[in-house]
Design goal:
By secondary structure, this protein is an alpha/beta fold. 47% of the residues lie in helices and 16% in strands. The protein is globular, with a radius of gyration of 17 Å. The protein has one domain: TIM Barrel, CATH 3.20.20.70. Helix 7 packs across helix 8.
């Protein structure tokens, strides 16, 4: 079984809804500090605010780029990433250009990711995660998306935004892990609400879990751990 610390360090505690308020981000950051999560994942506007909230903790701030559709121009995505890193974010989760992928515009998809990766390289210890939106892709397209992310130098491939069709599944995580091998890590996101789900995804090889239910998952984990002692 995973230790409490291991589980906490796999979680990106997430708040990306359009009507989220500053009060909710305060709560998010408090929970992240309390449970010692790896990161909070927040909307770009709230990056500086969350960086300030978390300055005395080890929790890092992640944000999104080209979110949630992925159809922004290369230049806009690169600019978004740069602004986020300058504001104190250490990780960005960018949405792959799904339409371009389906149109077979492979060079465009590759360049799209490379632009953000190149921005990340101008900073120290910055990570890029590529959201491939598995629920909207065929098996062939999923494989290609993962391969392009790896070729572009991304650190992670991620299952979904949670705002479109489908979410994280064990089968998709297993597939993505087998495709990227040791060249990148896998983040599962979308519809992860329980420890039972989280554990299955971690055992399938997910290195991170993006979820707005981080607190609930930790409580369920602790309850299960206690029950196994008796």
């Amino acid at each position: 079984m995973f230790s409490l610390r291991e589980v906490a360090q796999k979680i990106d505690h997430t708040l990306l809804k359009a009507n989220a308020t500053e009060k909710e981000y305060v709560q998010l950051c408090c929970e992240a500090k309390g449970y010692r999560f790896k990161a909070v994942c927040v909307l770009p506007y709230y990056v500086p605010f969350c960086v300030e909230q978390l300055k005395d903790s080890a929790v890092v701030v992640a944000t999104v780029v080209g979110f949630p559709l992925g159809a922004n121009s290369f230049e806009v995505k690169a600019f978004e990433a740069e602004k986020a890193f300058l504001a104190g974010a250490t990780e960005v989760d960018m949405v792959l250009n799904l339409g371009a992928l389906k149109d077979g515009k492979i060079k465009d998809v590759l360049l799209d990711i490379q632009q953000v990766v190149e921005v990340a390289k101008t900073f120290t210890n910055r990570l890029v995660k590529v959201i491939i939106e598995t629920g909207l892709l065929t098996v062939t397209e999923k494989r290609l998306a993962c391969q392009l992310a790896v070729e572009a130098g991304a650190d992670f491939v991620k299952t979904s935004t949670g705002f479109n069709s489908g979410g994280a599944t064990v089968d998709d995580v297993l597939f993505m892990v087998s495709t990227v091998g040791k060249k990148a890590k896998v983040k599962a996101a979308g519809g992860i609400r329980t420890w039972t789900q989280a554990e299955k995804l971690l055992r399938a090889g997910a290195n991170r879990l993006g979820t707005s239910r981080g607190k609930d998952i930790m409580i369920q984990y602790q309850e299960e751990s206690k029950s196994k002692k008796f």
